[in-house]
Structure formats: structure tokens, C-alpha cells
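Title: [Solved] NADP-dependent oxidoreductase domain-containing protein 3D structure

Original question kept below for reference.
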Amino acid sequence: MNRNCDWLSRKDTKAVKKLHYRAEISTVLRSSTKRIAAMAPQQTFLTLNTGYKMPQLGFGTFSTTPYAVEKPVLWAIEAGYRHIDCAHIYRNEDDIGRSVRKKIEDGTVTREDMFITSKLWCDKHRRNDVRPACEESLRKLGLAYLDLYLIHYPVAFKVAFTLAIFRIHIKEGQKFSATNSDVFEFEDVPFEETWQAQLDRILAICKIPPAVNQIETSVNWLYQKHIDYAHSKGIHIIAYGPLGSPEIMK
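Solution (posted by the thread starter after getting help):
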């Protein structure tokens, strides 16, 4: 490649290499998405305890940089995915929203066809921070509502992503969600990454029970005890990394 770029400055050469790298990533991602879609069964749905239906097969967007996520989301929707899993901390909601809106605008899907999930980050657990955080995700996605809004992790951080922990009990967030859900633009109030004791405390005080719990569950890490307990309470499990999560280990 250097022989072909001798006439470029060092800065320009780096830029060209970066473009080639991005093209290679896009090719790999598109190929992977098509292979997964080809293996996937016809889309099926789970009925949540709220009565709403959630597509059983979801497309995760963790650890994807902005330039690497927009096209894969387009391809995923074209391939039949209707459940897109996002989060504030992934820092790519703008690009995901742009892809979703493109497929709505070109008639591939309607907004009602899509099931969009986002997540509340750990520095926004205070009662007065929840709604603004949700609205920020909606603004970035360019959507009027979310279908599912998860507490990303049941531990509260101080602002600016430090690891110092506030003394904010998870009950406070649940009470806020339960008593104000009628004015929110999302339908369900689930919790991610909770253990059985936490789930019991939530169920003891909530007016609206959690609809789902998202945990790391895979062929190598089948958390059957938690799955069975959640099912006994009418709560569905969403598995992240169902085929493993090598990126998390880097």
C-alpha cells in the first residue's frame, strides 16, 4: 500500500489506511450479519407480562464504534431483525437511530414493527435524572418512544463515570418508575443484572412488576437457576452474548 501512496503525505497515508480498515470491518460485519440471518428461524415473539410482544431474536450493538454500526443495523433490519438493543453508554445511539429511521422512511418497516431497547446508565439513578436520561436517548435515536428501557446495572455511580457509589437504593428508582410510568414514553419497567434477592425486594414494593431481566447467558454460561426463578415470577430473560462475548474479555 505504501508504494501506491508515495505521493501522499504521512497524514494522508494514515487517512487512506483508516478508510481501508473501515471498509474491511464493514465487509466482515455485513458477511457475519447475513450468515446469522440465514441461520435464524422465522421471527418469533414472546408475550411479556404487560401483554406487549417482544421479538425473540435481537440485534445487539455493544462495542461497535459509530462508523461500524450504521450499516450493520441497516443490514440487520433488511435481514429480518426487528429487535435492536441499544444503550446510552455504547455511545452510538445517533447512528443506530439514523439507520432505523432510514428503513422506516424507505418503507422496509414501520415504527410499530420495530422493538427498540435502550438502557439507563449508572450515574443517572437519582429520581430526577431518570426521565432526562431517557429523553436524551430518544433525542439521539430520533424516536418518539422506546419499547423497553432497562436499568443497565443495579449500582449507582457518581456523575462522570467514577466508581464511587451513591447511597441510592434500587427501591428509589423502582418507585419512581412505577409511579410515573403513565407519563413516560416507554411501555415496560424491567431491570437488568439483578440477583434473586434484589428481584424479591423489587417485587415486594413495585406497582408494575419487571417485564424482563437481561443477563449474560450463553451455551457456556447457562444461569438456569436465575432463569427458572424469573420465569416463576412471570419475567422473561433476555440473554446477552448467547454465543459468548470475546470482546468483553479484551
